């Protein structure tokens, strides 16, 4: 499967916060700013390499490329590409699907900062509300991207609805509990399947 994400961002925070990969760079300014614009485009492809229908278990392997399309001058991105590889596991139990992800991300270094490549993971559960709708809860973990950041631990609650085989809509809210995690974010995502 191939997926392309084209986000629109609005960031409200200190001048050192960027919208890319939740990176926080040091900045002596305490002044808040609001910036918006096109985010980094993400191309994602995965392949199911193990499927056990009797056990309702599946393993996917995949890769992502984050293209640096967001404005670096507005603080919406770093101006560098990132690359990730990951493995996903799914286990279905009646109307619930348990999921986990383990991945490794190569973060593009800028002229000013040498970022760490990081391990990341997700644990979650999805509840099938009906044929077209799901409710999910996710825990996302990631190593610190550089020496001044802490690890990330964030919690996401989302609801997705497929109108038909082509169009879907997802809403989400996210919060975190580490210094480098997001305080609160949310959004809507329209998906179009080809």
Task: Provide structural commentary.
The chain has 194 residues and is mostly beta strands. Helices cover 0% and strands 60% of the residues. It has one domain (2-192): Beta Barrel (Porin). β6 (82-93) and β7 (96-107) form a beta hairpin. The protein is globular, with a radius of gyration of 17 Å.
Structural class: mainly beta
Helix content: under 10%
CATH class category label: Mainly Beta
Largest sheet: 10 strands, antiparallel
- Uncertain regions spanning at least 5 consecutive residues: none
Radius of gyration: 17 Å
The best one-word shape is globular
Mean pLDDT: 90
- State the distance separating the first and last CA atoms: 10 Å
Tell me the series of helices and strands, N- to C-terminal: EEEEEEEEEEEE
The fold-level CATH name is Porin
Total of domains: 1
Assembly form of the protein: single chain
Q: What is the name of the CATH superfamily?
A: monomeric porin ompg
Q: Could you give the order of strands across the largest sheet?
A: 1-4-5-6-7-8-9-10-11-12
Number of strands: 12
Tally of contiguous helical segments: 0
Summarize the structure in short:
The protein has 194 residues and is mostly beta strands.
Please outline the helices and strands.
Layout: E1 2-5, E2 8-14, E3 32-38, E4 41-52, E5 57-67, E6 82-93, E7 96-107, E8 118-130, E9 133-142, E10 152-162, E11 167-176, E12 185-192
Antiparallel strand pairs: 1-4, 2-3, 4-5, 5-6, 6-7, 7-8, 8-9, 9-10, 10-11, 11-12
């Amino acid at each position: 499967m191939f997926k392309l994400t084209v986000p629109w961002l609005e960031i409200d925070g200190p001048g050192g916060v960027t919208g890319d990969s939740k990176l926080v760079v040091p900045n002596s300014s305490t002044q808040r700013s609001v910036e918006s614009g096109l985010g980094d485009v993400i191309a994602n492809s995965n392949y199911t390499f193990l499927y056990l229908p009797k056990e309702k278990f599946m393993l996917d392997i995949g890769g992502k490329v984050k293209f640096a399309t967001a404005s670096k001058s507005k603080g919406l991105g770093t101006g560098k590409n990132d690359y990730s590889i990951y493995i996903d596991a799914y286990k279905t139990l009646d109307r619930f699907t348990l999921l986990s992800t383990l991945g490794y991300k190569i973060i593009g270094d800028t002229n000013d900062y040498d970022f760490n490549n990081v391990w990341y993971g997700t644990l979650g559960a999805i509840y099938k509300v009906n044929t077209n709708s799901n409710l999910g809860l996710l825990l996302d973990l990631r190593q610190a991207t550089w020496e001044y950041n802490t690890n990330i631990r964030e919690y996401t609650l989302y609801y997705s609805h497929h109108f038909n085989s082509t169009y879907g809509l997802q809403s989400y809210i996210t919060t975190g509990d580490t210094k480098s995690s997001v305080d609160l974010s949310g959004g809507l995502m329209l998906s179009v399947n080809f």
